[in-house]
């Protein structure tokens, strides 16, 4: 069967939104504390619908990234600056400090090179899915677009590296189907080589952590999350009280590595995957959003349960934006 790319576009963007929606009530909590609330997460969701009634900055910015690609019919820096400024009118929900200060500076006409914060936070990786989808046939442009879209708001090399890794992962997974699976080694080759030989210390450190992750996939989820929750974390993202606990730090490397870990541990079911992502602990909404984008593109919308899609606020609008993005993609490729 040929791949239904429209279904993959929809799956990835709605996957981001589902992960964000399910994860945001638990943002800033330890995995243990989250899980003490339920034995069955599905029942917990059904009994507490009002907790899961919105998405946050992760989905908002992902949609603005998609709109920037649609408006520019591809990557055009000005459209990205415009869209990230427009985000301020949404208004932002649960935004990271680095991202919001940069967006405000852009709004007041400060050139993006000066507006960007030096944040290594996960704020650029969480919005990258549309770039992975749109440029999946053109890896060179995928990489340059991921980097540029990232440094508009975050000058730190960890942020751009995370954006490249996740965009590359999405571009790889769009051509895979759960029925036939994929090679884990090949997946790691793709994502690690996307940032290797960069001469940048942080990018090299990221590669080393990805190699460690690859050899840790036998670990149970809890143990893996404890191991990688603080992976690579630098000040000011280090939170001493959560050392040695399952609490994903909002730094790019730790968030990306934990999201990939949970995704790879749950390849057989979108639902199981998204439930684990959203309850990972720490920056749960962003782990949910990044991992949800991966799980969603891999499974496609056809494998995402309807009730999860319908939980997302304005899900019809997200599906419409996915369709529009796909239309422009088809015109171009
Ligand atoms: Mg958020």
What distance lies between the first and last C-alpha atoms, to the nearest angstrom?
A: 20 Å
Bound ligands, each once = magnesium ion
CATH topology call = ADP-ribosylglycohydrolase fold
What integer is the average pLDDT?
Answer: 97
Structural class: mainly alpha
Low-confidence stretches: none
Q: Percent range for helical residues?
A: 55-70%
Instruction: Output the CATH homologous superfamily.
Output: ADP-ribosylation/Crystallin J1
Compute the CA-based radius of gyration.
18 Å
Using the alpha-carbon principal axes, give the shape.
Answer: globular
- How many domains make up the 3D coordinates? 1
Count of individual helical segments: 18
In the CATH hierarchy, what is the architecture at level 2? Orthogonal Bundle
Oligomeric nature of the chains: single chain
Strand content: under 5%
CATH class: Mainly Alpha
């Amino acid at each position: 069967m040929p791949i239904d790319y429209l279904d993959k576009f929809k799956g990835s963007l709605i996957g981001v939104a589902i992960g964000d929606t399910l994860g945001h009530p638990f943002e800033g909590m330890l995995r243990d504390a989250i899980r003490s609330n339920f034995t069955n997460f599905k029942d917990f969701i059904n009994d507490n619908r009002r907790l899961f009634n919105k998405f946050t900055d992760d989905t908002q910015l992902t949609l603005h990234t998609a709109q920037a690609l649609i408006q520019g019919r591809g990557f055009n820096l000005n459209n990205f600056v415009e869209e990230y400024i427009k985000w301020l009118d949404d208004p932002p929900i649960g935004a990271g400090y680095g991202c919001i200060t940069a967006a405000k500076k852009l709004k007041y006409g400060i050139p993006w090179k000066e507006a960007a914060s030096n944040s290594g936070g996960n704020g650029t990786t969480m919005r990258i899915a549309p770039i992975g989808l749109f440029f999946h046939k053109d890896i060179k442009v995928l990489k340059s677009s991921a980097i540029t879209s990232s440094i508009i708001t975050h000058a730190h090399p960890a942020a751009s590296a995370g954006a490249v890794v996740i965009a590359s992962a999405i571009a790889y997974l769009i051509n895979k189907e759960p029925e036939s699976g994929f090679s884990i080694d090949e997946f790691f080759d793709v994502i690690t080589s996307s940032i290797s030989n960069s001469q940048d210390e942080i990018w090299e450190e990221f590669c080393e952590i990805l190699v460690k992750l690859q050899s840790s996939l036998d670990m149970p989820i809890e143990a893996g999350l404890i191991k990688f929750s603080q992976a690579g974390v630098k000040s000011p993202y280090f939170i001493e009280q959560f050392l040695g606990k399952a609490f994903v730090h909002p730094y790019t490397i730790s968030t990306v590595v934990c999201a990939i870990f949970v995704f790879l541990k749950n390849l057989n079911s979108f639902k199981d995957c998204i439930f684990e992502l959203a309850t990972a602990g720490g920056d749960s909404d962003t782990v949910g959003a990044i991992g949800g984008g991966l799980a969603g593109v891999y499974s496609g919308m056809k494998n995402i349960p309807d009730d999860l899609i319908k939980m997302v606020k304005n899900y019809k609008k997200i599906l419409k934006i996915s369709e529009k993005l796909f239309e422009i993609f088809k015109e171009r490729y």
